[in-house]
Design a protein that fits this description.
Oligomer: single chain
Radius of gyration: 39 Å
Shape: elongated
Amino acid sequence: MLLAAFCVLVGAARAQGADQRDTAADAKNQATDLAPVRVVGRRQPVDPFAFHNPVEAEATVFGRSWNESPSAEEIGMRGGIVQIGINKGLELTAKGIRKLPGWQNQIVGAQARPPPLDQAQLERAIRLHDERTSPRAGRELPR
């Protein structure tokens, strides 16, 4: 008798679960798909109550030489503390090498060069170009 009551309860629970699955499937079939949304612009909302300093101060000697220690996020983004140490060592080595006597910087500043032709040469080139492109025997000479 106890077994029969248990079977009745289990059968009712299964029927109720099937009804819920049917209503969920119907609701899923009735759902409409929306067009994809494309976000354009700033991702983080601007806080209207945040303080925005209207004064743009120039960097000072102290600010230029100050190195703020990196946060945990920056350490992770830079490859870890070991990688940061290696990069710092390479930076200090390069700074020492630049102080060696005879060191020349590999980066050379751009220099404006003089025009390739002076005025007389330019006039001669224009005259020769005009003579060359004038039609001779009904055709142009190759350039």
